[in-house]
Amino acid sequence: MLQLIREKAQGWIAVAIIGMLILGLSSVAWDAYFSPDPEVPVAKVNGEKINSNEFQRAYAQQRARLQQMLGGADISQFIPDEAEFKKNILKRLEEEELVLQAATASGYRVSDALLAQQIRNFEVFQADGQFDAGLYQQWLAQNFMSSDEFEEMLRRDVLVQQYRLAVAATGWSTEQERNVLFKLQEQQRDIGYITIPAATYLEQIKVSDEEAQAHYDANSSNYATDEMVSINYLELQISDLTKNVDVDEVKLRELYQEKASEFGVPEERHTRHILVEVAGDASEEELNSAREKAESLLQQIRDGGSFAELARKNSDDIGSANDGGDLGFMGRDMMMDPGFADAAYALNKGDVSDVIKSAYGFHIIKLEDIKAGDIKPFDAVRTKLEQDYRRLQAEDQFFEQGEILANMTFENPDTLEIAAQELGLKVKTTALFSRNQGAGIALDNTVRSVAFSDEVLLQGLNSQPLELPGDRVVVLRVNEHQESSVRAFDEVKEQIVKNLRQELAQAKARAEGEAILQQLAENDDIEALAKERKLDLNHPALLKRNATDINADIVEKAFRMSRPEAGQASFDGLVTKSGDYAVVALFAVKDAEPETMEASVGETLKAQRERYYGANELRGAMSDMRSGAEIKEFPENF
User: In total, how many domains does the chain have?
Assistant: First the structure.
């Protein structure tokens, strides 16, 4: 089982994890300006700290995922309770830490070679289908991370997914269960139905002025206008500052020298290796035994044995053993263990190393080939350097001006003009908006919430600086305020009359339908009853659950009704979403025959049920872990 899990971790799991990391990390640098100390704990799980930096990363990733799902739209309206949103993120981080602790205790690990291969295979780090160390280093720099930080983050997340997959894989389903599911899923039902349209009663219904007035008087709060505000605001944005940065050619060349490693293709070495794995807590006897095995394998190689064949049969690195220990071309930075890298770079082409000790055991390395490095010239990367230079200068200005903005709007709480003059900003104004809806900057839930806060709305003060998506900070104050008021009767009379007529028409349709059901309880001949009332009885062909040519409300009702007794129909009614009433007759139920189930359908049902049971197993395991864990939270730190 562990072998299977580890193999799967080399594919979609690791790729998906890197994708999620990349999705959110671009937001972390921005958050760092205004986040608390990254080492401050937001929680401790069995003594292990979850720090503010981890929390901010997870927060940024979740927001980025939501924004991507919504096509880049503002997501604030979908997070009505920011505190609850953050609590759920913290709970997920706590569970990840619990899983990591369990995985580590159970002996799970992600080898350096496997981690390196996954990074090399990820498209964002490739140029022309090949891993580009410069792109990798460039991405790390853009996200303010070292390679060690990123690789440790990835290693941790892969371990968590490995363990979760192992627990989930314990779910299984029986053939009998699949047969029952198939019978229900492919079941067919013989139904008839009568629809009583509410619209047929509309012409009969009149609503007097007195009735409309009475309804208005009893429900006047339903016709109140929203409380509205418009705001004045100052906006500080990195993209605006970037445009005004003067580019210094000398500084660009200095930046080129600083970033030379990003623009260079470092020397890479094509290696194979054989790993004799050793646990971190191995005894002296176990270490000696592993070393002796490695020395024996090295001797066989020196005696003329095939390195690749010996790797296939003996290497404990499952990520490379099947390929004869082949690790492909890697730069020094991609060789996770310094001792391994030093040994590989000390070899000449075709050489085999002595036995090398690493954190994971003993290695034997063979150098297959060397690919010389190269550095891109200044002119080839000048455009990128200029973008980076502008961004770096703008970020410094943004931070400095952000502090000035915060200080001056606090010291002058009744105006934005002084801060605007100091920073060369324009005071902008929004249209009126409500607590729940707005346009422009008021699309953001945080802006609307702060605009209606006591401090801003009632006390008339400037707001605190607000961080918004897109590397922006704003400070706002109220420009205009309109109280909620009840609209005059004459303004809403037409809508009231229309609504009342519709409600009364629907009530008549329902009364007609319920009368039909009462008659059917005494005489189950629905066809005769339909003729008597001059209504159409629809009798479609046998229905499946996924039928689309019949009103979905009617199909759902038909498949919720109890099986009819032999020779007798069962009846029920419902109000459809359109307001019409439908009387449904269920004549017969025909289960699918398991013998007709195709193999692919059976496999799909099996996978569905095992995913369902696996998810339950995982929830149970997490519940047990939490109940037995010591978890302390520090909400004041997030």
Answer: 4
